[in-house]
Amino acid sequence: MPCLLLGLGAFSNLWxxxxxxxxxxxxxxxxxxxxYIAVVFRGFDRKRRESATSYALLAAMAVITxxxxxxxxxxxxxxxxxxxxxxxxxxxxxxxxAGLLLLAGCAGFVAAWRGDHVSEPxxxxxxxxxSGGVTAALLILSETVMELRATRQELARGAVEQERxxxxxxxxxxxxxxxxxIVVKSEAARRLAPHDVDAALEQVRDIESxxxxxxxxxxxxxxGYREGSLATELGRAASVLTAAGVEPVVRHSGPPPGPxxxxxxxxxxxxxxxxVVRHSGATRCEFALDSTAGRVRLTVTDDGVGPSPxxxxxxxxxxxxxxxxxxxxxxxxESGPGPHGGFVVTARLPADDARPGHTRPDAC
Length: 364
Known about the structure:
Blueprint: H1 8-15, H2 22-42, H3 46-49, H4 52-72, H5 79-90, H6 94-114, H7 121-192, H8 197-223, H9 230-243, E1 247-253, H10 259-280, E2 284-291, E3 295-302, H11 312-327, E4 332-337, E5 343-350
Parallel strand pairs: 1-2
Antiparallel strand pairs: 2-3, 3-5, 4-5
Helix pairs in contact: 2-4, 2-5, 4-5, 5-6, 5-7, 6-7, 7-8, 7-10, 9-10, 10-11
């Protein structure tokens, strides 16, 4: 808006009666300022800026600018830089560059043709192209900053959502498994108490240990530092399954998986054991770990009846969370009835050094 001060010379000529046909000049000055304000304000809204109305207003400004500059000359030639500034608010890309160069050439030509210019023709042409270019650059920079700010806010929202999802998955897996273990061992202690007090007390000590471990794991899950261990989870699984009257079997072939794969497969083992204890009614549960140089697979098979229809929603939450964890690193999770009855959970993972975004240490 302050750039309209460039038109004070034309207004002064009208006020002092130095311009012929002052009514024509006054109407032209008023129309130009009105169009200029309308065009500039439309430049801050992308939809309005790219509309046909904006281009029509800009064309009307060009007609008035050329008419006043050719008819009056002198200070009226400064309307060319103002028209260029308006072009900088509306035009973008190649049309902006071509329009500014054409307008600057015309401004210099009209100034040289009139011969009564207040500045050299090349100065008017230079000012014309610079005013539009600087205006467009500032507006583009402002739009870029606003887009970056919006992107940053979107990324922040996405990070919060991911953290909520992570925490909900961890809490479900941790508490679901821990509470199942406590229930199973409490039932075992109740059965043993009338006949073998020492064995019952051993189960109670296990409940206390599981509770303390659960407190630690929940704290680690809140801070995001918990990393499961497949060996630890399989050891806990054997203890829990034995207390529940289920025979655990562990088979392993191939080289040991990397730490990243172990952590994820530990979650799979934990969730599978929770479902076996709570829903399957199985008498035998087998863990088969097969690993190669590029792939790791863990299969958990039981001989039970599988999750009950009433528990399907809860199980779906845990298995769905595991599927999302594995999919994030290029893995997959499949679950369903086995070919010979029972229930089968199969987790497949790429080796740690074959995952997307992973770099081998010796390649750094």
